[in-house]
Amino acid sequence: MAVRERTPRIACLLLLCLLALWPAWAQGPADVAEVTGKRSFDPAYTRFGFELRTRWGQRVSGVFPQYEGEVSTLADGRHRVRIVLRTAEVIVAGSDRYTALARGPSFFDAQRYPYIEFVSDPHPDTLIQTGGRMRGRLSMHGVTRMETFYLSDANCERPGTDCDVLASGSISRDDYGLDGWQFALVDRVRFMLRVRLVEATTP
User: Going by DSSP bridges, is the β-strand pair 47-53/35-41 parallel, antiparallel, or unpaired?
Assistant: First the structure.
């Protein structure tokens, strides 16, 4: 009988221990990593844009002139990128009509979804030198998914300072419910960035 009485007590103690530890192990590495430094985007050089094609092969390109974000240095030396694009300010090159449509409910729907956000997984600081894959969470149009962008290899010793960091990646419009203009536009949207960095200012 003594053994049977102890068994529920042991189970309760184990459950209490797990509950006490839950907040620590439930968070991912990116959520608990200590940030030791930040750099922001230099507006004199930084550009965020997108490109898609019509079903007749024409190219439609646009830019996001209003943005925020930073590149954080983590305690282990890795970097994490955060980019926030303001959809209400998107501009489609050469067309006021297409600009209004891009901001409207048939596409980015800026009134309901004013931001597009990308937060990368932590990655080695050498990635901007060597180029390669940068994965992260892309949130757009009320949907969050893991996506991959590709950094070009650097053409200077200090990329981001002496030369631009270039990256691009494409996503499916269907994945994010961007179902406007299906009769005229293909499914893929290509995002491009050209970035230089400056030390973040302290508020």
Answer: unpaired
Which amino acid, residue 134? Answer: M
Contacts of 87 (CB under 8 A, 6+ apart): 64, 103, 108, 109, 110, 113, 114, 115, 116
Convert the pLDDT of each residue in 46-72 to its tens digit.
Answer: 999 999 988 898 899 999 999 999 999
Per DSSP, the three-state class of 185 is strand
Query: Hey, what are 72's tokens?
Result: 């954080």
Give me 168's structure tokens. 């691009």
Q: Is 163 helix (H, G, I), strand (E, B) or coil?
A: strand
pTM of the model: 0.80
- Whole-number CA gyration radius for the chain: 22
DSSP state string for 80-98: EEEEEEEGGG-EETT-HHH
pLDDT tens digits, residue range 111-150?
999 999 999 999 999 999 999 999 999 999 999 999 999 9
The separation between CA 143 and the C-alpha centre of its own chain, rounded to angstroms, equals 12
Q: Are 175 and 138 in contact (CB under 8 A)?
A: no
| CA pair distance 68, 81, nearest whole angstrom | 11
Structure tokens at 89: 């300010």
E strands present in 66-172 = 67-74, 79-86, 91-92, 115-120, 132-140, 143-151, 165-172
